[in-house]
Amino acid sequence: MVSSTQPPQPNWSDPQYYFSRELSWIEFNARVLHEAMDERTPLLERLKFAAIFSSNLDEFFMVRVAGIKRQVQAQVDRRSLDGRTPQEQLEAICQKLLPLVAKQHQHVQSVLRPQLAGHGVFLLDYAALNQAQQRYLREYFEERIFPVLTPLAVDPGHPFPHISNLSLNLAVVVRSPEGTSHFARLKVPSSLPRFVLLPLELQRRKQTPVWMGVPIEQIIAHNLDKLFPGMEVVACHVFRVTRNADLEVQEDEADDLLQAIEQELRKRRFAGSVVRLEVHESMPDEIRQTLMAEMGLSKADVYPVAGLLGGRDLMALVDLPLPHLKDAPWKPVVHPRLRRLMESEYSTDEDFFALIRKQDLLVHHPFQSFSSSVQMFLQLAAQDPDVLTIKMTLYRTSGDSPIVDALIAAAENGKQVAVLVELKARFDEENNIQWARKLEQVGVHVVYGLVGLKTHTKLMLVVRQEGDRLRRYVHIGTGNYNPKTARLYTDLGLLTCREDLGADVTELFNALTGYSRQKNYRKLLVAPTNLRDRLLDLIHREREIARAGRHARIVAKMNALVDPLLIAALYEASQVGVQIDLIVRGICCLRPGLAGVSDRIRVISIVGRFLEHSRIFYFHNDGAEDVYIGSADWMPRNLDRRVEAVTPVDDRAIAKDLQEILGILLADNRQAWELQPDGSYRQRHPASPDAVQSAQQILMEMARQS
């Protein structure tokens, strides 16, 4: 029995109780890199993780590092949760990233490329090609590359050119016949493929190749005599620049938010300050210094690379038709209730709505199909003559979106359709602008949300005439209305027609589209209105139950845990005996395992085939067991600066299903990592090969057998 004596409360603002947000993210990306190095994972899947590692780093620099550098330039001295100044954060990031980047490139060069070659996939260096291959590429260069190249001189009459974000470039030094050296910059056109394919018949190896490619920058570098005739090419080195890509829109001063976002996007392409310079390690210091001086960078901003720059481009090889080098294909299954419906020869569109009226429906993607559940629900609603209104939020969707097509069909069928398109969804702004315009053209009411708040919630409301009454059907999800990511991310969606939830979602949409200021919701936990307070209440309730000597438990699954108030509440709950399990995929600022503070808190992270994206919150509540799902992570931005919705799951059978999912995740010993008190992660290992428990594999098998 836990003592009812309240322990002395530490000062929860003390940095010793928190990990650095930035360093915790780097730890997450290190786990991604580990997947690229895990020999248990098929080869092309490992190459994919290596590419994801690079892509993640690009975004990290464009957003997080850029933001910290802005703080340094503005002489902001506010310290992070773990007590570092902005300058100290930059130094810590650099110190942690340099060896990790070197590790990735070394692994790609010395392990993945040779293993790929063993399967007939040759990523070749130009210098190692035979004469026939080099002749072919010389002709290819002259016909396909040379006409689109633009060498730019750098001298008093030619200022240093703008280097666009994430572009590959060559720094070239040439010498005139008079002995004068000149510097030029040559951009590798992004319109051309990164890897130029060689005809397979030019391969003179015993093994029949499947794919042969050469990095385009090497082809250009070896044919510079065509670009600088009459000059001697003294040096040529590849470099790549990363710029600040975060939008800064003054929403309250913008008359037209869509137009303001468009203008800011144009500015982002050309005006963002440089935050990282990647160079090939062979680049001499003199050229590095020239680039640093021209772009206003310090040595800490330069990342030397031993292999290919722009590792995200390796993703082009992942789609090669080599199924034996990939995970076995996974086709999401139709939810068993929907499958029985679809198999019935008397099935009608009405039956889908009747199925929801009979019992709430929970779908778990990608184990269960998005297209035959959420997407089909919207498509049926768009065609159903009894449906009067459809409202939904769009944060991210696919390029050829059947979701948008269904909304257009609904509008053309005379239904009132209102869509909140979040224009500030990072790196999807341009796509969302296009969708907004397309929807407006067919009469859809398109709004962009509340000033100063990003709308991140995943909601759909369908109002249907049924006899002499209107019934509201609701979908509340953890993931985007995107059929493509629904096959790659683990997410949950609840379809229901419960009156209280329908009323709450109606009022939330009114707040998003009009001037309503709803403060109290019947069921929903809504940010920034009441979500933070309700989560604190739920944690405190477990704390008081434990303090009374009864069993108390919290299990929470999310993408990130950063909020200091919620972390402090979890510490206080742990201190009095609440057992707390946290499944946090990425950033976690909570420090587990501190004696007398967090020794009852366990944190695991799962990095596997599918991106863990669902949010599930479980509170034991003295045996009453409350379960919630929704779109919100436990971060200040989600709780204070975004519109989020989290719903209780009142259907007891579905609540039990969610508890089972949490239990399977917590038992994972294949892709699970446990957070240690020092901030490192330790991968779990099964006691024997027969004891392997991969949560994602188990959930796939359960779906297959359902």
UniProtKB/TrEMBL annotation:
GO terms for molecular function: ATP binding; metal ion binding; polyphosphate kinase activity. Residues 608-638 form the PLD phosphodiesterase domain. Catalyzes the reversible transfer of the terminal phosphate of ATP to form a long-chain polyphosphate (polyP). The lineage of its organism: Bacteria, Bacillati, Cyanobacteriota, Cyanophyceae, Oculatellales. Its cofactor is Mg(2+). ATP binds at N56, Y489, R585, H613. GO terms for biological process: polyphosphate biosynthetic process. It catalyses: [phosphate](n) + ATP = [phosphate](n+1) + ADP. This is Polyphosphate kinase. Its EC number is 2.7.4.1. The keyword Cell membrane does not apply. NCBIfam families: poly_P_kin, PRK05443.1-1, PRK05443.1-2, PRK05443.2-2. It is an enzyme of class 2 (transferase). The active site is at H456 (phosphohistidine intermediate).
